[in-house]
Amino acid sequence: MDLTNLAAGLAIGLGAIGPGIGIGLLAGKAMEAIGRNPDAAPKIQTAMILAIAFAEAIAIYALVVALIIKFV
């Protein structure tokens, strides 16, 4: 096995763990907040979607780094 394959796998694997956990915690807390105060659901949902997009961007950066390691 080539060492670059291992490095690329580790880059995307470790780079996706943090955003995955963060998105799960974020969505869970948002659902708890909506459950406590349903009238605030639109504001909570907007903030949740924006935060999820920022967290997902970190995973995309990790994917780009893995692809650079693999093909460059």
From TrEMBL:
Keyword terms, alphabetized: ATP synthesis, Cell membrane, CF(0), Hydrogen ion transport, Ion transport, Lipid-binding, Membrane, Transmembrane, Transmembrane helix, Transport
Transmembrane spans: 6-27, 48-69
Origin superkingdom: Bacteria
Marked site (Reversibly protonated during proton transport) residue numbers: E56
Molecular function GO terms recorded: lipid binding; proton-transporting ATP synthase activity, rotational mechanism
Domain spans labelled V-ATPase proteolipid subunit C-like: 6-69
Principal location: membrane
Pfam families for this protein: ATP-synt_C (PF00137)
UniProt topology in membrane: Multi-pass membrane protein
Gene Ontology CC, one term: proton-transporting ATP synthase complex
Compartment annotation: Cell membrane; Membrane
InterPro entries: ATP_synth_csu_bac/chlpt, ATP_synth_F0_csu, ATP_synth_F0_csu_DDCD_BS, ATP_synth_F0_csu_sf, ATPase_proteolipid_c-like_dom, F/V-ATP_Csub_sf
Family membership: Belongs to the ATPase C chain family.
Function: Key component of the F(0) channel; it plays a direct role in translocation across the membrane. A homomeric c-ring of between 10-14 subunits forms the central stalk rotor element with the F(1) delta and epsilon subunits.
NCBIfam families xref list: ATP_synt_c
Protein name: ATP synthase subunit c
Species of provenance: Candidatus Taylorbacteria bacterium RIFCSPHIGHO2_02_FULL_46_13
Name of the coding gene: atpE
